[in-house]
ABC transporter permease
Amino acid sequence: MTGLTTAPGRPPGTPADPGHRPRKQGRASRPRRPIPTEFRTAVSPHQLNSRRGRTVYWTVLVTVVTGFTAIFVFPLYWMVTGAMKSTEDLLRIPPSLLPPRFTLEAYLEAWELLDLGLLLGNTALYAGGAWLFTLAIDVTAAYALSKLRPVLGRLVLGLMLATLMIPPMVIMLPAYLTVKDLPILGWDLLNTPWAIWLPAAANGFNIFLLKRFFDSIPGELLEAAEIDGASPGRILWSIVMPVSRPILGVVSILTVVNVWRDFVWPLLVLPDNEKMSVSIGIASLSAQMPQNVLIASLVIASIPTIVVFFVFQRQIMAGLTAGGLKG
C-alpha cells in the first residue's frame, strides 16, 4: 500500500515536490543600500539649507556681482557725469563722484562744435555698408567651403586663417597701396566708402566662425532640399540663413563695432574733413575743446554701439553658444 507523503503546510493528499524550493524574497523586500551622494559644487545643498550657509552664500554672491558690475559700469558713469562738470570740477583733487548740478549744456555744445550729426552719419554709412558686404561675401564664402566643398577648399581656408597670424600694422601699407590703385581696374578708392567696405568684408575670422556653424547643419536637411529641386543659392537663402541667425548676429555686431571704433585705417583712407568718421573727427578737434565738451562728445559717439548691444544681446549670447542643431 503506497502512501502519499504530505509536506508540512500542504493539504493532505498533495504529493511532495522533491524539486520544490522555497521562493526567494523579491527585490522590493530587500533592504536597499544607501546610494552615496556626491556634490560637485562649492557649497552642498545641506549647507545651503542652514541659516548660516544661506547667509554666507548670498553675501558672497551679492558682493562679487556688485563688485564686477561696478568695475565695468564705473567708466561709463564717469563719462556721463564728467560731461556735466566744469573743467575746474574735473581737475579737482580729490574728484567728486556727483556733478554740482545736472545739465546738458556740454552735450549741446559738443553737438554743435564738432558737427556730430555729420560725423555720426558718415560712420553709420561706413558701418552699414561694411555689414552688408560682410554678409554678402563672408556668408557665401563660408557656405562654399562648408557645403559645396570646392577643389583646394582646405588650402584656401588655411590661407585665410593664416592672415589672422599677421599683425594688422604689417599689412596696413600693402592694403593702402591696394586701395589707392586697385589691381586690374586701376581705381583710386581713397575718400570713398569703398575703402572701408571692401577691407572690412575681407575678414578670415568671420569666415571661420560662419564655416564652423555651417558644418553643424545636418546634411540631410540640404539633401532633402536638393531632391526638391532647390539650387545652392536657394538652399543658402531659404534654409541655411534662417537657421544661422545666431551666428549671423554675432558677425554683424562684430563688423559694425569694429568699423565704428576703428581709427588708424579711416585716418589713412579718408583725409577729407567732410568724410571723416566720428572717431577721427573727435580726435582732430580734441585740443581745441574744453575737457567736459570732449567727454560729452565721447559719450554721444558711444551711444549707438551701446544701443546695438542692448538690442541684440540675446543674439550675441545665442551665437556664442551656438555650435549645433537639436532635433
